[in-house]
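Researcher: Sequence of Glutamine amidotransferase class-II follows. Predict its structure.
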Amino acid sequence: MAAHGLPDGAPRPTMDGMCRLFGMSSAPHRVHAVFWLLEAPDSLRVQSRRDPDGTGLGFFDADGRPQVHKAPIAAYRDRAFAQEARHVESATFVAHVRYASTGGLEDRNTHPFTQHGRLFAHNGVIEGLDRLDARLGDALHTLVHGDTDSERFFALISREAEANGGDVGAAITTAATWIADNLPVFALNLVLITPGELWALRYPETHELYVLERPPGGQHGARHLEQHGRRGRLRVRSEDMDTLPAVVVASERLDDNPRWRPLAPGELLHAGPGQEVTSRIALARPPAHPLTLADLRPEAAASQKAA
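Model: Prediction complete. Tokens:
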């Protein structure tokens, strides 16, 4: 086996760059929403780090089964998949625009990931993946199908949830704490959803993550939801949100609503099935081995600064 628990000659685990995260919960109500994962009409001839390396949308059908629409998108490829409107219905959603630092652009490395009926997306860099692979044990082979640090992080959360009887919040805390204490870390920002719940973690302070507890009709009342990201170029619209509340998590403020607030470093937020929102500082201390841009390989550093 090679250094990261992969066969000799296998690709090095990919570390995801300055990705854009989006999560939304209207639970227990299922709502219709339209997603454009890559709305901006950038020229396909402009091949630069401003162009995403993958887009993905995750949600749940009426029977609670996870559904994922995703594709690796590069500057030199047809981006029609990402620019096409996705009409979906769910009580929870997660979307992701990925900027990869290394490795091939493949579906298996594109967020969101699915494990044990949950969906997950991550923004950041974790190194020392040989130690993480060892920590995962059998879960490496049963849950991890691609080359990213993100999917391995998710697998550690899934393993911890299985061990603790299904407490996802505690599993996120345990997994993130172990990584923060033992591995070099740049960022661990994440969104994880089930059919009726959403969790979001910001750690450490490297990348921002915002939450909006949106009342029915939004800031001015009686208005549908219309969110539009500048950097990730993600757009979401829901006519149902003129009468229903929602919890929205994103890598940036998506409109001028004054209710947006940044999560604190180490803050773990949970939106439950009845719109109750709780949060706590799950990781109070900084990483034992923090990474800076200067510590990253040039392509990884470039992707972290892409936005």
